[in-house]
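Lab manual, section 2.4: Encoding a predicted structure.

Procedure: take the sequence of the chain (552 residues), apply the prediction step described in section 2.3, and record the output as structure tokens. A sample record is shown.
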Amino acid sequence: MPECPSSEVRKKLEILRNRFQDKTIGDIEGLVASIFSASMRPEAVSELVAAYQLLHRLAGSAGTLGFTQLGEQARKLELAIKPLADQVTEGAEREYVQQQLKQLLASGFEKDLLGLGSLLGVADPVSTGWHKPLPVESVNRFVLLILDPDHQYRDLLAQGLALYGYEVRSLSSAEQWPSSMGDVDLVMIRDTLLQDESASWLARLHKLPVICFSEAHDFATRYRLARLNVDACVDGLLDIPSLADLVEQLLAEGLATLSGKVMIVDDDKELLEHYRVVLTSGGMQVRAFDDPSRMLSELAEFRPDILLMDVQMGQYEGPVLARMLRFQAEWLSLPIIFFSSEADRDLQLDVLARGGDDFVTKPVSDEYLLRTVRIRCFRARQLDKLVSLDSLTGLLKHALAKTELNREHARAARSGHSSIVAMLDLDHFKRVNDSYGHGVGDMVIKALSNLLRHRLRSTDIIGRYGGEEFLVVLPECTLEKAVKVLEALNQDFAQLVFNGGSEEFAVTFSAGVASLNIYETGEQAIDAADRALYQRKRAGRNGVTVADENHS
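Recorded output:
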């Protein structure tokens, strides 16, 4: 029987702990020898600097790896020996430093030093309580649960939301909610079902996005619903596009807090690997390495959301590396978080003033590390959206969409795989704006963008090219498959019903499709898809037309 994911994580952490333990036995033996050597020979007092640095490292890493008592004792010894190490660095007389060291040893430092190794046998239990395995995605299909006594209303909602690619389930009351339905991603519930605040099933809502159908707008009711962890409140009108837009927003926020790209640089290999295991197990994409000289090339290739870095890594100083990164405009906004066992707040602020954004004091618990990184990645992505994503649709802006298309064109040329570019345009969109207003027009644009995002693959490139026009790139896709997918989207979008005040209406779109590979440049492929789009418009709109490859 296969092990559960949390057991696998525990085993990895135990292996790292054992590796740290074996390595640290030798480090402590060398530390004791160098300090006693410095107390007996003036010419050996320079070894106190390395001894201080080792104690400083142990103070930060031991606790993180589960040796809390060792870390605390190392911190005590580090603070005691720091004044002597500083004097050596400043060039004080060696005999004077030696005499101070002898006094320090006699004051109890020697006993604590000799007992340091025994603390390697005192370890905290390995805990993976913070680890909650992420659900396996099933072709980007989210599960929505509708709780409403009105079965006809539930059925209409389910039919409308299913067009967006959601799996929709419905119940007339929350008491019918079976324990086996643990894969639900979002709940929509009628406010009358929330009257009994002592109901045991309410605890299930605490971990899920919740939309409440309520026609009450008074302060007391809205406050009560917010206290019950409701995330959004709607009137309950059967406006499927608006509801789908709200569902999309809440699900996107939830996913964004669970993922992110993290780069870690630390010369402590065991600690570096520990961070990597914890963050990877928590759903993050991680690039970790111990050689700071690789930083520029790794950043260019990986392009992380945030960078975690130790303050001191051998000959390299973290703040200097941060300042160096800020030389390049593309890294000016990259959040840099420093990890260090330095507890002096003034020194921490000095480090931040030299290019950092945050400071985390080691040792750091696994749960705190994961939460800190998730929050930071989420904030970084929110800021990035303001720059790279269209504010109305959440899709790539025009320029960035073209950049991604050109990258895929180059990638397809290198590997030889087939990729497709498509241009989509809403039919008679000016008539929608003129008849129902720009607010309703925006809702139509958002409805199509949401449909594209949910029904296409996460690897597909989707951009708002301008106004009511969209650019879609389907990597590693045949022309026949692309046409089939777009025709299905075309048919389902035409079934959506929009509310234009006193009347309902539907909208269609036209699409032009071209093979990306057969053109010398991405721009030529876009032009071909654009010509096919307008050929579709002249042929009556509402459909998909393939570009004539003879014009390539």
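Check your result against the sample. The domain at 398-550 is CATH 3.30.70.270 (Alpha-Beta Plaits).
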